[in-house]
Design brief:
mainly alpha, single chain, rod-shaped, 1 helix
């Protein structure tokens, strides 16, 4: 019996795993961006006082 260990590849040569990892990285970047905005707003508010 043959085991198919290779991930499925789409017509452009990308695996599903690639897109899953890409989505995770995008979510991380989005989270970090929102945290940066919060920190910037806190800093701006504290300097105005």
């Amino acid at each position: 019996m043959k085991k198919d260990a290779a991930p499925p590849i789409d017509k452009n040569g990308f695996s599903e795993r690639f897109f899953e990892e890409l989505t995770k990285e995008y979510d991380k970047a989005d989270t970090f961006a929102s945290k940066q905005k919060e920190l910037k707003n806190k800093h701006t508010q504290s300097t105005l006082r």
